[in-house]
Amino acid sequence: MLSHFDEKNLEVNEKGIPFPADTRVSFETNNEFFTGVVEKQLKNSAIIKFDKEFIKNETAEELKQKVVISYAGLELIK
Which of 14, 39, 45, 66 is deepest in the core (most CB within 10 A)? Predict the structure, then answer.
């Protein structure tokens, strides 16, 4: 039997504390640098929505404008 995933009880690890939803971040994927916004936090990573300037970028298009990145791979944009 599959267990039901309860999103409300999701515990974000310590590295994720600086990256709540709607935080602007920079990150690297496929040897390219991007910027975006944290859409959702996971335990050890976050779902990032690419900034609109990357709408025509091949990598962003292949990833459907979203990517999961480890907190260690994120940097805050101030």
Answer: 45
